[in-house]
Write a structure and sequence with these properties.
- The structure holds three protein chains of three kinds.
- Chain A is an alpha/beta fold.
- Chain A contains five helices and seven strands.
- In chain A, strands 1-2-5-4-3 form a five-stranded mixed β-sheet, covered by helices on one side. In chain A, strands 6-7 form a two-stranded parallel sheet.
- Chain A is elongated.
- By secondary structure, chain B is α/β, with parallel strands linked by helices.
- In chain B, the strands form eight sheets. Chain B has a five-stranded parallel β-sheet with strand order 10-9-8-11-24, sandwiched between helices. Chain B has a five-stranded parallel β-sheet with strand order 13-20-14-15-16. In chain B, strands 2-3-5 form a three-stranded antiparallel β-sheet.
- By secondary structure, chain C is an alpha+beta fold.
- Chain C has one domain: Cytochrome-c3 Hydrogenase, chain B, CATH 1.10.645.
- The chains are: A alpha/beta, B alpha/beta, C alpha+beta.
- The interface between B and C is large, with 42 and 38 residues.
Chain lengths: ~160, ~625, ~375
């Protein structure tokens, strides 16, 4: 069943590649314009369940990679879709019209990585409070440096002695 | 899904009286302190005698809670650092990774876990244990949980300890392919086959990068760096790091006495990393021309001074290499037909094949160093002449003469010295060989000659009959343990603890054997060499050929009387400072004639003397 | 009648709250008009912290994400690393991991029973449940050396073998607990007061549950028998026999009964594992922790924790540290969208009821 599905995906969507890392994990790489149509297509074919949305920061290639995962209760197969968007001024469309529970995942990615999702009504801060300066999960934010700079006023243990 | 409070009745509450006579379901704990489980992860314990200060615990701690602090009062021991771990309990998460990686198993976790204090200073703690700190570790009857503190802990209360099956390092070495004895005594082929790429990667992965080996290596090579390059398959950078401190790695990779391996952390409870064989792997697998290109990176501009070096052994070649890199012009005077010194004419081919030695020498020669072989200083050219042509002179002539036991009969035909025989074997010359041989001596040279003679005996007569006897007892013998074991596998009979008395002759005045007596003590009360024997315990060993290999001595006749008067010589060795400077400003010395005792010390001497010669010449201007 | 909307802070310190979590309620009279969940009190940035430490050093971090059931977080990280590095875990280690996971599931369900019973006012049952949880923690202390944070699993197996006499102690504990189940039933689960307080509260239909991303008991209480231990077995679950309990209604009452049945199934699994425990080694040594690099790739692994589907998406770019780890936790969807939907139109008195019956653990939301 997964082979037929893979074949149909490659036929109907442009520039899309399908690969497997193991029996029940299918990875699809697709350009960002095709994602919406692809998710609708998968939902029509039984993959009604959005498992997660997350983001990986590929700073050397200057791109963010958004990772979506959909599941189906009739088969153990999980489909993971990877989409690349450019790293400067990142925006993307929200998939709330297809999957209702995407709201909070997109909210988390907006707060931690800085990607703006058009169409999401609830892009308010989720974990961090009063943190308008920068987005902490990006690779150019060094948390150890930040700790040294911000909390420098507290003397270290050697100075204590 | 049924509910049992449906029917109402006035008598229902009376039913609960039966619980008056039943045991309560909640278990009552009287206030007795309960010991924590035998594997509890509490505060740290450290055995300061086993701890080597390697710092692996500090490297692996995920919260950076451990720092290594220098302890000034620790007794100085070789192979250990005078540092001990200090734990910051504000950061420690009690995971026990430091226990699982500690190579000697000194760091453990105890079952204590309570500590209360007003300030934060006491939370930074140097753990000891009941052996070295009797004040803070008290026995069970004196211990009180109400005073539990980092300064009031219970002795013999270990919790999470290190177990060898579950440690994070690999205690077993990757096995090396060594020829079995029945194959190797048929020829002088190299007995250690060397690692393949896969095995070298597996072995180099074991190194924990604690750098205890770098401190004890006489040349202070960057061992953990070059092993890391081997792990990453980057042999060029590995060879480059090796050549910073050692220009003869092909030799050292086969015959070095590997002090580094004796102090390797993994050797405390397992087998040390095979540092010597990994060095050999890196050097063998990089082409000669490639190495010459790599080495040129360190070269500096040419200078006009000229330096003469007497002796092309390891110290001379090493000094020549470093001085040549600094830009000086070098001439080496070598008495024998080929360069190499004791490396070519003393170490047999099954330990050090000549191809490896020639590769190392070729790299040094191609840097522009001139080696004049078959030129004996004192005969073909005088030392005065050499002094006049050079701005500084380095002597590394080594101990090339053999010492004698001077027992009666040792001067007759049939008795030989080890070094001339080894020279003949190395050059391929023929000589007369006895059917039964006795070798006197228990050091590495004795085993070299004995094992070489087994091979020649096997080829000529078909069987091996060699007896080796020495003054030392079996566990005091000076040769490497591997040599003794491999020699015995090849058929040598080892008779330790015997002193030679006299050579026995048959009716035709031909050598028939050696008479020995039991040696009771070797050194007297002052520590001087003065063996005492038990003359009643006599053993005779039969043999037509006796070979002496009890030690080597130098030959300074080439220097001339004037220079010998100015030099300070104690027990055959020239006194120099740690940089090889003698009492004569333009004369430098290194190698066996300064202190020995092996190839790597000579190489380190050559390096330091090169630095001293450079300083001397720069300041002389 | 004039009604006005009031904003009420059901804050992080509240008797009906489990963990550090707050909800902002807009109430009109006694009914809630709108609810907004405010997580973030426990955000420690684990995913960023793990990018600074090597693969072996990281094994001390994931257990702190879920305080109530730390073993499932350890398991998911180990499975992710083992899947990327292609390490095979020995069979005895798989059985031991199953025993540890099931004991942890028992402890977590007992904790949930304590929280729910305490909130409703059934204090006796709550203390029984907490007492039995303490016995489980004692068993863990003997096995691993720590009561709450075990740090027992490592990539390649488990860190130490079972101590002597451990199997008997576990069997004794299970038998004692099993003997006490009728008392639990009589006091809480089959009690008419509990039926009246929990029936019909927080009802969610199967369609809505799937749309909003529910897994675990919330889904099984709506009638769908989906358990990852049966669908995609891991550890030793394909070698033991057990059933997946379900209920039909989808309200708080059904969810509690699903938990009750799951605890009994856990006891069966533990007994089977102990009887069939194979011999052998428990640890497959991984490469030197200072030099170990995992080849480039990514993977997604999942297990059935006591709350639902717990997954980890691990990305490696060939280095000594992970490049990105993302933990897909079940409390994220239970605690924010489902909670906000279920609280709409509910009574203020039922806020704690609904929230605890969803088994939200706040540290899992924040990570």
């Amino acid at each position: 069943m997964s082979e037929e599905l893979a074949k149909e995906i490659i036929d109907n969507f442009s520039n899309t590649g399908v690969s497997y890392t193991s029996k029940y994990r299918m990875y699809i790489q697709t350009p960002k314009e095709e994602l919406f149509r692809l998710l609708e297509y998968l939902k029509d074919n039984g993959f009604k369940y959005l498992v997660m949305i997350t983001c990986v920061d590929w700073i050397n290639e200057n791109e963010f990679e958004l990772v979506y995962q959909v599941g189906n209760f009739n088969t153990p197969l999980r489909i993971i879709i990877q989409v690349r968007i450019p790293r400067n001024n990142p925006t993307y469309e929200s998939i709330i019209p297809i999957f209702k529970n995407a709201t909070d995942y997109e909210r988390e990615i907006h707060e931690l990585f800085g990607i703006v999702f058009d169409g999401n009504p609830k892009l308010t801060p989720l974990f961090l409070e009063d943190w308008q300066k920068f987005h902490p999960f990006k690779k150019d934010f060094d948390s150890r440096e930040y700790v040294k700079v911000t909390f420098d006023s507290i003397p270290t243990l050697e100075e204590y002695k | 899904m049924k509910s049992n409070t449906e029917k109402k009745s006035a008598l229902k509450p009376a039913k609960s009286i039966k619980y008056l006579f039943q045991k309560p379901i909640t278990f009552r704990y009287p206030f007795e302190t309960r010991d924590a489980s035998p594997r509890y992860r509490g505060f740290h314990l450290n055995d300061w005698e086993k701890c080597t200060g390697c710092g692996n615990c500090a490297d692996i701690c995920p919260t950076q809670a451990i720092t290594m602090v220098e302890i000034k009062d620790l007794p100085v021991e070789t192979g250990k650092k005078a540092e001990r771990p200090q734990i910051d309990y504000g950061r420690c998460c009690y995971c026990g990774l430091c226990v699982d990686i500690c190579p000697p198993g000194a760091l453990r976790l105890s079952r204590d876990y309570l500590h209360i204090d007003h300030g934060t200073e006491s939370f930074v703690y140097l753990p000891k244990d009941e052996k070295s700190d009797k004040e803070h570790f008290v026995t069970k009857d004196k211990y009180s949980i109400f005073q539990a503190n980092l300064g009031h802990r219970r002795a013999n209360y270990e919790g999470f300890v290190s177990e060898l099956n579950f440690v994070l390092f690999e205690p077993e070495r990757t096995p090396m392919n060594i020829e079995p004895p029945e194959v190797r005594i048929n020829s002088f082929i190299e007995e250690v086959k060397g690692y393949t790429a896969e095995k070298a990667k597996e072995e180099s992965e074991r190194c924990l990068e604690c750098k205890l080996c770098e401190d004890i290596c006489p040349a202070h090579m960057k061992i953990s760096d070059y092993i890391n390059y081997i792990y990453e398959d980057n042999l060029e950078d590995s060879v480059k790091d090796i050549y910073i401190d050692n220009p003869l790695p092909g030799v050292c990779g086969r015959v070095c006495t590997h002090k580094c391996e004796t102090v390797c952390s993994l050797g405390k409870r397992g087998e040390p990393v095979a540092i010597r064989w990994l060095k050999r792997y890196a050097v063998d697998n990089v082409d000669v021309n490639h190495i010459e290109d790599i080495v040129q990176v360190f070269a500096s501009s040419k200078k006009q001074h000229h330096i003469a070096i007497v002796g092309s052994g390891p110290s001379g070649l090493s000094a020549a290499y470093y001085l040549s890199l600094m830009g000086y012009k070098i001439t080496i005077y070598e008495a024998k037909p080929m360069a190499g010194g004791i490396m070519r004419y003393g170490i047999p081919k099954y330990r050090l094949p000549h191809e490896a030695l020639d590769k190392d020498i070729k790299i040094i020669q191609d840097m522009g160093v001139e080696i004049k072989t078959n030129t004996t200083v004192g005969k073909d050219i005088s030392f005065e002449e050499i002094k006049n042509t050079a701005d500084a002179v380095f002597i590394g002539t080594g101990f090339m003469k053999g010492r004698s036991t001077r027992i009666p009969g040792i001067d007759s035909e049939g008795c030989y010295q080890a070094l001339p025989l080894l020279e003949k074997i190395s050059s391929g010359e023929d000589f007369w060989l006895g059917k039964e041989i006795v070798v006197i001596g228990g050091g590495n040279v004795a085993f070299d000659i004995a094992r070489s003679l087994t091979r020649i005996q096997k080829k000529k007569y078909g069987e091996v009959k060699i007896t080796l006897t020495c003054l030392e007892k079996r566990d005091e013998m000076l040769a490497d343990e591997e040599e003794i074991i491999e020699g015995q596998e090849e058929g040598i009979t080892v008779k330790p603890g015997r002193g030679p008395k006299e050579v026995l002759f048959d009716n035709n005045h031909k050598v028939k054997g050696l008479r020995t007596v039991k040696c009771v003590k070797i050194f007297d009360e002052e520590g001087k060499f003065n063996p005492t024997y038990d003359e009643s315990d006599v053993e005779d060993y039969s043999g037509e050929m006796i070979v002496e290999a009890i030690g080597q001595a130098p030959d300074y006749s080439y220097l001339g009387e004037e220079i010998m008067k100015k030099l300070e010589i104690v027990r055959g060795k020239i006194i120099t400072d740690e940089y090889g400077r003698t009492s004569i400003p333009w004369l430098f010395a290194g190698g066996d004639i300064v202190h020995g005792p092996d190839v790597i010390h000579a190489i380190a001497d050559g390096h330091r003397a090169a630095q001293a010669i450079d300083t001397y010449l720069v300041n002389r201007k | 009648m004039i009604t006005r909307e009031l904003e009420l802070y059901y804050g992080p310190q509240h008797l009906g709250m489990v963990g550090n979590f707050s909800i902002t309620l807009s109430v009109e009279g006694d009914t809630i008009v709108e609810a907004k969940a405010n997580p973030g009190y426990l955000h420690r940035g684990f995913e960023k912290l793990m990018e600074y430490r090597s693969w072996t050093q990281n094994l001390t971090l994931p257990c702190r994400i879920n305080v109530v059931e730390p073993d499932s977080m350890e398991m998911i990280y180990m499975m992710g690393v083992e899947s990327l590095a292609r390490i095979e875990v020995p069979e005895r280690a798989q059985y031991i991991r199953t025993i540890v996971l099931e004991l942890s599931r028992l402890a977590s369900h007992l904790f949930g029973a304590w929280a729910y019973a305490n909130m409703l006012g059934f204090d006796t049952v709550a203390q029984w449940a907490m007492a039995y949880r303490d016995f489980v923690l004692d068993l863990f202390e003997e096995l691993t050396g720590g009561r709450v944070y075990h740090i027992y699993m490592c990539p390649g197996g488990v860190r130490r073998d079972l101590p002597d006499g451990f199997e008997e102690k576990v069997m004794n504990f299970i038998k004692t607990l099993a003997g006490h189940v009728p008392d639990f039933d009589a006091a809480l689960f089959e009690n008419k007061l509990f039926y009246k307080r929990a029936k019909g509260i927080g009802q969610i239909s199967r369609q809505e549950a799937i749309e909003l991303g529910a897994t675990g008991q919330v889904l099984r209480a709506t009638g769908m028998a989906y358990d990852i231990r049966k669908v995609e077995p891991y550890a030793a679950y394909d070698k033991v026999k057990f059933e997946v309990p379900t209920r039909e209604d989808g309200d708080a009452y059904s969810r509690l009964w699903v938990i009750h049945d799951e605890m009994i199934q856990s006891a069966h699994i533990i007994m089977q594992c102990i009887e069939n425990l194979p011999k052998g080694k428990v640890y497959e040594r991984t490469p030197n922790p200072f030099k170990w690099k995992i080849p480039k790739g990514e993977t997604y692994v999942r297990i059935e924790s006591s709350r639902g589907e717990l997954g980890a998406y691990v990305v490696s770019n060939g280095g000594k540290n992970p490049y990105r780890i993302f933990f897909r936790t079940p409390s994220f969807t239970h605690g924010i969208p489902i909670l906000e939907k279920l609280l709409k139109g509910a009574n203020i008195a039922d806020v704690g009821n609904i929230m605890i019956s969803l088994y939200v653990v706040p540290p899992e939301i924040d990570r």
